[in-house]
Design a protein that fits this description.
There is one protein chain. The protein is mainly α. It has one domain (20-225, 287-334). Helix content is 73%, strand content 1%. The chain is built from 13 helices and two strands; from the N terminus they run H-H-H-H-H-H-H-H-H-H-H-H-E-E-H. The protein has helices at 2-33, 37-47, 51-54, 56-68, 70-79, 81-100, 107-137, 166-190, 193-224, 230-234, 240-258, 261-283, 307-334, and strands at 286-288, 298-299. It has a two-stranded antiparallel sheet with strand order 1-2. The protein starts with a helix and ends in an 11-residue tail after the last helix. 41% of the residues are buried.
């Protein structure tokens, strides 16, 4: 039961990264790809029908985490209070950047909200990557399960790190490059003409950077926490995951060179999925690692709700996910294909 709930939450977080990831990537590229107001409207049209629905995965994942592992929810949301507040404000700025830019036909107005959309999207990708880096690196958990992290200390990993250090910055760069590439492939998939060509060229330039930063992040992870290989050594079949990561990277390059936009985008989705699945497989059964004493780790065993609650909740979770998946299938089928240029997104 605990194993099941761990992976259900992992699936929901992965779904959020894959779906909202191309929204964030489009936001990062918003001012780079689009050179005119009409082109910026076109970029917004690519994500306009789906961006807010994609964030349902984040809300549902947080709610599921609270239900299944309340100790982790309490510990994480108190210890990461400062970065979570930053993320909340960035999500707000990103939302109003999308929704308010078309309300007034003024260069100052649209320019301001274009900036809100692009800058908040960029910072969100970095903070999301740093968040995963903190989970893998660990935090200074106390005996009562709580901790506090400043935004940064001396930029080194150790028993008392900050939210940002050299390792979590690398994790943030992985997320920034991966999601920007993901967004570029999505914009190329959904557009025509010059902006389509620009998106494809930018994706081709980002691919080598993603290849390098992926290798660097693997080295960095094994340097600071070599025990992440324990599960892989115990279950050799898990080594198929890094092979799949490498294969998906190669597929992005091959399909992008061939001009197969849909296949390249799906390969990018596969890269994100296998990267996150690999991280989840490495940390299980830990949910939050202690940098001071492994005995203080928050695991699926000491953080879970009661067995009866988890059993009943699994039924309602399945019902809710069936509705959510049905909605997503409907929306993505309704808005499939290339977007057309128009005055509103």
């Amino acid at each position: 039961m605990l194993f099941t709930w761990f992976w259900l939450i992992a699936v929901m977080i992965t779904g959020y990264v894959v779906f909202d990831g191309f929204d964030l990537g489009a936001g990062v590229l918003h001012l780079l790809l689009a050179r005119t107001d009409q082109e910026r409207r076109t970029v917004l049209r690519t994500i306009g029908p789906v961006w807010d629905g994609n964030e349902v995965w984040l809300l549902a994942g947080g709610g599921t985490l609270y239900f299944a592992f309340p100790l982790l929810y309490a510990s994480g949301f108190s210890g990461f209070y400062l970065p979570l507040m930053i993320v909340l404000w960035l999500l707000i700025l990103r939302g109003i950047g999308i929704e308010l830019r078309t309300h007034l036909n003024s260069p100052v107005w649209t320019g301001f909200f274009d900036g809100c959309f692009a800058i908040s999207s960029l910072l969100l990708t970095v903070f999301y990557g740093a968040a995963l880096g903190n989970v893998i690196r660990g935090v200074p958990l106390q005996t009562d399960g709580y901790f506090f992290l400043p935004l940064w200390t001396n930029w080194r990993t150790g028993p008392q790190p900050g939210v940002l250090d050299w390792y979590t910055v690398i994790a943030g760069l992985v997320a920034l490059i991966a999601l920007t590439l993901h967004g570029a492939l999505y914009v190329a998939l959904k557009t025509r003409g010059e902006i389509n060509l620009r998106a494809g060229r930018l994706a081709a330039r980002l691919w080598p950077a993603l290849l390098v930063i992926t290798a660097v992040s693997l080295w960095a992870t094994l340097s600071i926490r070599p025990e992440v290989l324990n599960n892989y050594k115990a279950f050799a079949v898990l080594f198929i995951i890094p092979v799949a990561v490498a294969a998906s990277l190669a597929a992005i390059f091959i399909f992008q060179r061939k001009g197969s936009e849909k296949a390249a985008f799906l390969s990018s989705c596969a890269y994100l999925v296998f990267m996150l699945v690999g991280a989840a497989a490495a940390v299980y059964p830990n949910l939050l690692v202690s940098t001071t004493d492994p005995a203080l780790n928050i695991t699926v065993y000491n953080a879970a709700s009661g067995r009866h609650s988890l059993s009943v909740g699994l039924i309602w979770w399945g019902f809710g996910m069936a509705l959510a998946i049905g909605y997503f299938v409907f929306v993505y089928r309704m808005f499939r294909g290339k977007v057309s240029e128009g005055n509103i997104y």
